[in-house]
């Protein structure tokens, strides 16, 4: 009898530890991501909010950016998905509540290509000091991988370029 409870206990512990890893997404940021989902999806696709990952990166002593990776699935009624990266800045409004302004967004993964399973981005020093460089670990699909089962670890190198209208650019 006690042995039957052990697998259930382990499963519950793993689920709780995974939930503890991902901090709650602030409601205003969640709303901004929902707006992006509506813009990117087709008439059949839906957002998958449970798969949204958020991370804040301090770019200077008084400056930070917020990264959000979100997933949309079921394009053209298929068994497929795309992942997108959105970069935001945050400033408090008159009431002191954070407002998240979209800097840029781009498709960053999808079935048969690559996947971000956990957002663990890191800043990289830019020798020119003109860009914000970001590395994000990913899983990439190899030749023999199924579309939704990437097996090769990789890193994508991104640059946030431009002061007035920042753009995300993937570096080779």
Secondary-structure topology with pairs:
Blueprint: H1 2-21, H2 27-40, E1 46-47, E2 53-60, E3 63-73, E4 81-92, E5 98-110, E6 114-115, E7 122-124, E8 132-140, E9 152-161, E10 167-171
Antiparallel strand pairs: 1-3, 2-3, 3-4, 4-5, 6-8, 7-8, 8-9, 9-10
Give an overview in words.
The chain is α+β, with helices and mostly antiparallel strands and 172 residues long. It contains two helices and ten strands, in the order H-H-E-E-E-E-E-E-E-E-E-E. The strands form two sheets. Strands 1, 2, 3, 4 and 5 form a five-stranded antiparallel sheet that branches. Strand 9 (152-161) and strand 10 (167-171) form a beta hairpin.
Low-pLDDT segments, ≥5 res: 1-20
What distance lies between the first and last C-alpha atoms, to the nearest angstrom? 56 Å
Q: Give the averaged pLDDT, no decimals.
A: 88
- Element-level helix/strand string: HHEEEEEEEEEE
Strand content: 35-45%
Q: Specify the number of helices.
A: 2
């Amino acid at each position: 009898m006690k042995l039957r409870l052990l697998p259930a206990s382990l499963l519950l512990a793993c689920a709780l530890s995974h939930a503890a890893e991902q901090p709650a997404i602030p409601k205003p940021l969640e709303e901004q991501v929902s707006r992006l989902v509506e813009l990117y999806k087709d008439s059949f696709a839906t957002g998958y909010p449970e798969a949204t990952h958020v991370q804040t990166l301090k770019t200077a002593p008084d400056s930070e950016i917020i990264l959000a990776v979100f997933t949309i699935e079921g394009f053209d009624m298929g068994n497929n998905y795309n992942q997108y990266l959105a970069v935001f800045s945050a400033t408090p409004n008159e009431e002191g509540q954070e407002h998240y302004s979209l800097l840029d967004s781009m498709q960053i993964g999808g079935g048969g290509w690559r996947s971000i399973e956990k957002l663990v981005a890191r800043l990289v020093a830019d020798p020119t000091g003109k860009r914000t460089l970001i590395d994000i670990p990913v899983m990439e699909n190899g030749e023999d991988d199924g579309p939704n089962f990437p097996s090769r670890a990789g890193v994508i190198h991104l640059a946030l370029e431009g002061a007035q209208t920042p753009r995300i650019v993937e570096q080779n």
